[in-house]
Amino acid sequence: MRKSHPLRRVVLATAGTVSAVVLLLSLKPSSDPTSASAAGTAPSAAAAGQESPQGGTGAAGTTTVDGDATQTQYGVVQVRLTVANGKITQAQAIQAPKGGTSDQKTALSVPQLNKETVAAQSANIDSVSGATYTSTGYKQSLQSALDKMKQAAASSSGSSSPGSSSSGSSSGSSGAAQAKTVTGQVAQTQYGAVQVRITVSGGKITKAEAVQAPKGGLSDQKTALAVPKLNQEAVAAGNANIDSVSGATYTSTGYKQSLQSALDQAGG
């Protein structure tokens, strides 16, 4: 009988072992479907749990109101209010005078005005010493934002209840109808036309602005100096019996004439 060669037996044994290992590896599952599914769903469930509180009623009850942009001698001032549950929770100036010394005055005054607004919950705040124009413009823009906030609250209260009677909805609409805007006649002055627009609510002037005013050369400075003061005095007085601004007599006179015609149109 022929004896097999020792080297041949070694080769055959090795080949058999390799084949067995390959077969075992091919039969072993590559992954566990159950564990893979759990790993895929757990993070998404956690994320859903984190997102749901952010979309709750707390976020829906917070609103942002921007006041009108107010022109001052050194630049525009505009106030933005954040309101939650009828209260001011944050006040900020989204526009303020800048450039040169205005940067320092703005940095000095605006944080104080913001803080006082939240504390007072009204426009009855003190002007910051050394930043009178910025403070005046801030308060005017703040007042316009407060007016918008009140109007929005009045309109929403009239229609918020689905089961309210028809008389409740009509009273809400009539309250909104009481606020109206009237533009006075154009008053010609030596340096240009002046025209005043007022917003009247409940028989009172809630806002006054000059839609036309002298401009060009020195008139730009005088207009920037006089108009904000005249606007503020018109709202405070509720009539055209306001003081002229020193150095801007013609503009002041034209302003008062146009203001009186607006008041006449509004019913006195």
Could you explain how this protein is built, in words?
The model is unreliable at 28-59 and 160-176 (pLDDT under 50). Helix 4 runs parallel beside helix 5, helix 5 runs antiparallel to helix 6 and helix 7 packs across helix 8 (249-265). Helix content is 53%, strand content 20%. The chain is of the alpha+beta class and 268 residues long. Strands 1, 2, 3 and 4 form a four-stranded antiparallel β-sheet that branches. Strands 5, 6, 7 and 8 form a four-stranded antiparallel β-sheet that branches. The protein has helices at 6-27, 33-51, 57-60, 101-120, 132-159, 166-178, 218-237, 249-265; strands spanning 62-66, 70-72, 75-84, 87-95, 180-183, 187-189, 192-201, 204-212. A hairpin with a 2-residue loop joins strand 6 and strand 7 (192-201). The protein is built from eight helices and eight strands; from the N terminus they run H-H-H-E-E-E-E-H-H-H-E-E-E-E-H-H. The radius of gyration is 36 Å and the shape is elongated.
List the helices and strands and how they pair.
Elements: H1 6-27, H2 33-51, H3 57-60, E1 62-66, E2 70-72, E3 75-84, E4 87-95, H4 101-120, H5 132-159, H6 166-178, E5 180-183, E6 187-189, E7 192-201, E8 204-212, H7 218-237, H8 249-265
Antiparallel strand pairs: 1-3, 2-3, 3-4, 5-7, 6-7, 7-8
Helix pairs in contact: 4-5, 5-6, 7-8
